[in-house]
Amino acid sequence: MYSYLHRYHAGNFADVHKHLVLMATLNKLIQKPSPFCVLDAFAGEGQYRLDSEESKKNAEFENGIAPLLNLKPASLLVTQYIALIQRYNTESQIQTYPGSPEIIAKYLRTNDKGIFIEGHPSCYPILKNHFKGQANIHVHKRDAYEALSALIPFKEKRGLVFLDPSYEVKSEYEKIATQLIHLYAKFSNAIYLIWYPILVDGHHERLKEILHSHATLKLFQHEFYPKNTNLAHRLRGSGIILINPPWQIDEIIREAFTELESVFL
């Protein structure tokens, strides 16, 4: 169950997809002064070295974040994303990629809260140490599904639940969808952001089927199929579903990825 390590895949096109959507959602949350909580249920290590042996093995970032750094985008969202990545790197070389917890942490204000869950025995200490001393960030070593059941609803009336499991076990597509139905029943005010890989086997269709079958859920779905990638034989595309999507976020996301077509298609 703990064979997956994201350090082999950091900065790939799926990260670009999910993190742009994550930032678009966080941009909406900070528009209101009331505090919010963000729970990242599969947090990983926080940030990743792209010059590590693991990352260089497949060098997936070369067809992900790397070609974006020289882009001069018109989209405000893409501009913000590139600026964030550039904070960790020099103009001539990309060495570090911030994971979802690091991105979330950049958006948290004094009264906001981040909860980062990681069960992997080698990833958790790295994540815990990375956010050491940050009072409004809580890092837990526990099973993600148990944590979701225990920690939701939040004390804060507003919140985001970010879910990007590895889907190593194919039954996880159905498991995550079923869990989401239960979570929504407990905390219908939250925004839920679910990422899924689009593989040739088509297992992701089960997740979509379950969520779309519930008429009470307000959903926005976006799928990204880059052509210019060396992962095409394994990972065909990247998908996200937003439950309770913020107003006009669909337009913001579509605008961003229309602009990125010149890079990835």
From TrEMBL:
Top-rank EC class of the record's enzyme: transferase
Q: What is its EC number?
A: 2.1.1.266
The chemistry this enzyme catalyses reads: adenosine(2030) in 23S rRNA + S-adenosyl-L-methionine = N(6)-methyladenosine(2030) in 23S rRNA + S-adenosyl-L-homocysteine + H(+)
Give GO BP annotations, semicolon-separated: rRNA base methylation
Molecular function (GO) terms for this protein are: 23S rRNA (adenine(2030)-N(6))-methyltransferase activity; RNA binding
Stored InterPro entries: RlmJ (IPR007473), SAM-dependent_MTases_sf (IPR029063)
Keyword check for Transferase: yes
The active site is formed by D164
UniProt keywords (A-Z) are: Methyltransferase, RNA-binding, rRNA processing, S-adenosyl-L-methionine, Transferase
A Gene Ontology cellular component where this protein is annotated is: cytosol
Which residues are annotated as site, described as Interaction with substrate rRNA?
Answer: Y4
Record: residues binding S-adenosyl-L-methionine: H19, F42, S100, E118, D143, A144, D164
Keyword rRNA-binding applies: no
What's the stated role of this polypeptide? Specifically methylates the adenine in position 2030 of 23S rRNA.
Q: How does it assemble?
A: Monomer.
User: Which PANTHER family does this UniProt record tie to the protein?
Assistant: RIBOSOMAL RNA LARGE SUBUNIT METHYLTRANSFERASE J
Q: Which HAMAP family match?
A: 23SrRNA_methyltr_J (MF_00934)
The similarity comment for this entry is:
Belongs to the RlmJ family.
Q: What is this protein called?
A: Ribosomal RNA large subunit methyltransferase J
The record lists the organism as Candidatus Berkiella cookevillensis
What's the gene?
rlmJ
